[in-house]
Amino acid sequence: MSTSTADMRPSAGLGSSPQFWEFLWRSAGLQSAGLFILAYFVYGAQPHVGASPEVLAAFYQGERARILIAAVIAGFAVLNLMWFAAALRATLAEVGQDGWGAAATAASAALGGVLILLISVSAGLAYSVAGTASPAFAGALNDFAWAGIVVSSFPRAMLAMAAAFGLWRGGLISNRLFTVGVAVVVLLLLGGTTWVRGGFWAADGVFSRTVSPLIGLLWILVVSRVLLGRRSSSRAAW
Length: 238
Known about the structure:
With 238 residues, this protein is mainly alpha-helical. The chain is built from 10 helices and no strands.
């Protein structure tokens, strides 16, 4: 028995509409930023570099449920970040900026890998490591997580740069907004230099822990607004 072509088409409905998927993924940046902020507050204050075994145990064992819940939320945030980059890539391809779109894809892949690794380290410490491993090993993993946040500044800066230059060269943002994007790139790159032993410019300092990530999230919100404000192309990307 043969099946007609009409029978093989997706059934009509909201889920089969390209416009539905296009809107969903173009808004993924908003979803990602919101989930990252929620995970940040659920997770709580991570022990600083060189924290004592007592402080590490109090956090990773005493706040185990919060940390594991935050890991799930952060995982969804990373997932939406990947879809945000995919929407950015599709938009840049539409305006002939495939090179910057490819850069956005590469940057998001690198950033997603780093973030998943950091989420895994924190979740592993809370799940079993902090209670069973030696204090020195648990402390090393905690310090590694802080170092990973610093290093993540580079793929974050590359993603911001791909968005700023790609959207500007494609005529989708103004010169003023492009200037803001360049400033964001510079500030994110500065986050990769926060290796002072203590204080504001330390790996666990205010700039690395709060200011730099907040700047990156705000830029994602700006780019998401640009993506959502663009009319759908006649070429179906979704």
